[in-house]
Structures are given as C-alpha cells and as structure tokens.
Amino acid sequence: ESIPLEMHKVRIVQKLALPPVERRLAAITEAGNNTFLLRNSDVFMDMLTDSGVNAMSDQQQAAMLVADDSYAGSATYTRLESKLQEIFGTPYFLPAHQGRACENILSQVLVSKGSVVPMNYHFTTTKAHITLNGGTVEELVADTGLEVVSVHPFKGNMDTGKLRDVIGLHGADKIAFVRMEAGTNLIGGQPFSLQNLVDIRKICDEHGLLLVLDASLLADNLHFIKQREADCRALGIREITRRIADQCDIIYFSARKLGCARGGGICIRSEELYRRMRGLVPLYEGFLTYGGMSVREMEALTVGLEETMDEEVINQGPQFIAYMVDELQKRDIPVITPAGGLGCHVNAMKFVDHIPQAEYPAGALASALYIAGGIRGMERGTLSEQREPDGREIFANMELVRLAMPRRVFTLSQVKYAIDRLEWLYANRRLIGGLAFTEEPEILRFFYGRLKPV
Ligand code: F0G
C-alpha cells in the first residue's frame, strides 16, 4: 500500500470528542438531518468542507502577529496585493470577505437579464449570483467529467466543441464571460489541464470574450497539472501558476480554501474592468485596502499564497484523498475516480441505490454516516441544486457525499477510522432510508433546510 507521508509535524492540537451513537442519532434529528445544522461539539471528524478549516503553518501564525492594523493603506494590504501581482502577474486587485462576495461583484457588473455564462461546471454560490442578476449558466464540462468511474486525468476540462456551439447559439454579445473553475467542486474536485485552458482562451479571443478563473481550488489543480500533464512535468508550480494566470482576464478566489485563511479577492488585468467593479467593494465589503478581511487574515493569506507555490505543501491534500479513495475501492465502496482534490467523494447513487433521487440519497447517506461514526460529510447532489423558477426539482447529475480533507488536519489513523466506518455502513446500507423536506428555503436550501425520514 502506498502511504501518504506528512511533510509537516503537529505542534498545536484541538481536543476532539466522539459522542455515543445515541447522542449522534439525537443530534442529527435535532439538525433536521442536515449535516450543516450539526454542532461541531457533536462531531468527531469534521469532513464537511475544506473551507476555512485547513491547518495553518507556523509561518502564517507568525505573520499574523506583525499585521499592520489600519483602516486604509495598511502595509499588510500592500504585501498581499504585491504577492498576488507577483504570483499571477495581474496588475489590479480588489479584496473581498470571501469567494461568494467576489461572485456578487462580478455578477452585478458583468451579468444582466438574458446573459449567458458558459462554464466547465457550476458552483452553488456562483450560479445563485448569476441567476439573481438575470443570467443563466451553461455547463460545458466534457462528457468524461460526468463519468463517476474513470481514469481520465482531467475530468474538469471544458468541451471546446460545446463552447463553440453555445457561442453560435446565443451569439457572443449575450455571453457575459466564460468561467473556468479550477478543481471543479461539485463533480469531485476534478482538475482541468493547462492545455484545455489554452484552448478555451483561443476561442474566447476569436469572439472577444472574457475568461474568468475561479481559483478557489487552484492549489489542488496545480498539483494535478504537475503530476498528470506530460508537458508540465518539468515546470515548477510557480511557472504553472503563471501560465494559467496568463490565459485569464480575471482570477477570483475564496481564500478560505486558497491560502489557508479567510477572505477572498478578484485579480484583474484591465484597468477599465477594475474601475467598473471597484465601487462595489466599499459598498458591500469594506474599504479598498481590506475588503472585509482582518489584517491578520491578510497576513496569513499572503504567506499561504507563497506556501501554495510549494509542491510538498499542496500535494498533502490530494495524497491523503488518493489513499482514502484507493482503500474504499479495495472494499468495493463506490467512489469518484480518479481521486481528485478537496475530498473523497462517495457515490451515493450506487451506495444507496434503493433510495430514489427524489428522496435525496446523498443527503440520506450523509446523515447515516454521521450516525455510524460521528463523521460529518456534505451532501453534494440534488439537495444542493436549486429548483427551476416554476418549482420543478432538478435532479443532480451526480449524487455525492463529499468527505472533505481539510489540508494537513487529519492523521492517517483518523482517515483509517473513516474508511472503517464507511465499510460498516456499506455492509449495512439497506438500513438507510430516504429524506423529505419539512422546511425548504428558496435560496441555497442545502445550507439550512430541514428534512425528515420518509
Ligand atoms: N468557488 C468555489 C469553487 C468554491 O468551492 C467556493 C466555496 C466558492 C466559490 C465560494 O467561496 O465560501 O469563500 O464564499 N466552497 C465551499 C465548500 C463553501 O465547502 O465547497 P466562499
């Protein structure tokens, strides 16, 4: 077996509790069978997300102590801005409190009624902001991206033929921008290749379209390009990063995933676009030199971005995920392959194939896994979709339980524990029943909707 090796040691720890199964059953019932509504004190392994919960380095902690606190023009902000300019080569930066705040600004400025936004795959908050501003999303991931079990190295690639078709169908003037998401969140943390991005850029140039990168999961994607793309094997992470950035007009990110802190921001190439977006930052986020982030977060982010340029830092998440995926496959437990970034994705459509999609199989499996092991995953299936304007339910392409692997947080024995609990649950899967809403919010319902067993 290939054992992932921690290239760090643990020097600050947080005590965990593993509540007894009776308490776990009560807790998930109190939470309306929605893992988002559990209290962390009831959770043993929190695999809900990799957002804002990655381990920080000693260097990040140290930088937080020397942060320059001021409302306007702090040296901390200048350090962050310079680091982004250095890494991406983009001259302009707008800070924001997190990724979805960037999406709000981008969508308000670039999307209007009738706009179309082609993308490799949507993310929940991205789509919500685009539709809120009257636009629609066209998902153009190559067909291989939707094959759960595959050996394709770049399942996040956009299909260039589909992009040409969409441009032909709607006309370039209807297209607000083309969006590429690094490490496609909702289909298993799957990367795109640098070559694919270059191909998409060419098509954008032919039609005068903006190319926007969602870089929230860039760290994983960089690792996979280095490992899986033959032409990039000899390149350093810094060089791959610059080649990616060179293709893009705008790069936005959630710093909760990229750089191990809080916050986010938008890196922009054109001054004109920068000026159009700038006004919204003081309105929604805060002054231009903090955008809702604290100076301590900005310092940690600056160091985190630099650490992201180190392959031995960014390979940790993907290596632990690959270990978990391999071990689950050995036990015939259905998972997304190849292993991606972000986390291990269990295929609920197959795991609980007795639960129809209308009864949210992935939500049901996430609840059951919490009861079985105190492990909190996240539903990434139909529950995470939004209904059509006429109220019709949209069944997700995939029904997944995402077991996120916060970077450098869990030890291998904890990961083995999660594998063991999944093995038990798989053997007893017929115990799991479907769910129905008792309370269904209109927007982003998965966050705080409540459900009951059917
Ligand atoms: N884009 C991607 C690809 C993301 O994964 C996220 C967040 C966002 C944008 C929004 O950023 O949370 O800082 O506002 N993903 C988190 C997750 C929530 O758990 O997958 P945010």
Automatic annotation (TrEMBL):
Names of the cofactor(s): pyridoxal 5'-phosphate
Highest taxon of source: Bacteria
Record keyword Lyase present: yes
SUPFAM superfamilies: PLP-dependent transferases
MF terms (GO), sorted A to Z: tryptophanase activity
EC number in record: 4.1.99.1
Pfam families per the UniProt record, alphabetical: Beta_elim_lyase
Domain Aromatic amino acid beta-eliminating lyase/threonine aldolase: 46-414
Keyword entries, A-Z: Lyase, Pyridoxal phosphate
InterPro entries named among the record's database cross-references: ArAA_b-elim_lyase/Thr_aldolase, Beta-eliminating_lyase, PyrdxlP-dep_Trfase, PyrdxlP-dep_Trfase_major, PyrdxlP-dep_Trfase_small
Entry keyword Lyase: yes
Subunit structure: Homotetramer.
Entry similarity comment: Belongs to the beta-eliminating lyase family.
PANTHER family the UniProt entry points to: BETA-ELIMINATING LYASE-LIKE PROTEIN-RELATED (PTHR32325), TRYPTOPHANASE (PTHR32325:SF4)
NCBIfam families according to UniProt: PRK13238.1
Stated name of the protein: Tryptophanase
Organism: Aromatoleum petrolei
